[in-house]
Amino acid sequence: MNKSPRKVLEEYLVVECQNGNTKAYNQLARIWYPRILKQVQYHLKSDIAVEDVVQEVWMAISKGIVQLKKPEVFGAWALRIASLKSYDHIRNNQKDRGRSEDKREFHQRLALQEGSMDQDALIKTMKQSIDLLPVKQKQVLHMFYLENYSLLEIANILGLSTGTVKSRLFHAREHLKIQLKHFTYEK
Q1: Is the pTM of this model over 0.70?
Q2: Residue 60 belongs to what H/E stretch?
Q3: What is the full per-residue pLDDT of the chain (187 aa) written as tens digits?
């Protein structure tokens, strides 16, 4: 299997980082910073601590890169660290977070709403329904549909079996079907 030039460069940079080359680390950080930032932003939404969590991710990467046995899995490994650091932040701040709308109220409103709707209303309802998903299902749904990762890549990033990823994706889809069954959409 031929590797892309970018992948070869990333693997080379990882090996150089493991050998103590700080220039290689800086170049690897420039390449991966946007993806790490995006991963953390996805989990934390509009949280002001995004930059702090990204910094924690890079600290963990710099400490752990020496032990990384396979340079080719750096991307999945780094994104997994980003997800785990984001979850740590969410867990540590869970008490402070309040939901603006009670889940039951939302479900009742959704159940009462019937008939056709315009595309903006459909998108808004989809986003609200996705926000109600458990974090683990929402994460897999996002990675599969918006980030275009394969089931195997998601499993590697999250440190799960492919079967668990499939299960979470299935349950997320089923939840959305139930939430949206009261709506009809016509062009």
Answers
A1: no
A2: helix 50-64
A3: 678 888 899 999 999 999 999 999 999 999 999 999 998 988 887 678 899 999 999 999 999 999 989 898 898 899 889 988 888 888 777 644 444 444 444 444 444 444 444 566 667 777 788 888 888 888 888 888 877 788 888 888 888 899 999 999 999 888 888 777 765 544 4
Q: Could you tell me if 89 and 158 lie in one domain?
A: no
Q: Are 71 and 15 spatial neighbours (Cβ–Cβ below 8 Å)?
A: yes
* Distances in whole angstroms, Cα of residue 89 to Cα of each of 54, 98, 125, 159: 11, 15, 27, 19
Tell me: do 77 and 121 sit in the same domain.
no
Q: What is the C-alpha separation between 97 and 28, in angstroms, rounded?
A: 34
Torsion of CA 74, 160, 139, 88, to 10 degrees: -80
d(CA 53, CA 36): 10
Are 120 and 180 in the same domain? yes
- CA-to-CA distance for 52 and 75, rounded, in angstroms? 20
Domain that holds residue 135: 100-184
Instruction: Indicate whether 29 and 73 sit together in one domain.
Output: yes
Give me the number of domains the chain comprises. Answer: 2
Among 87, 83, 77, residue whose Cα is nearest residue 153: 77
Residues 53 and 69 in one domain: yes
Six-digit token string for 15: 């090996």
**Token couple for 66:** 């020496």
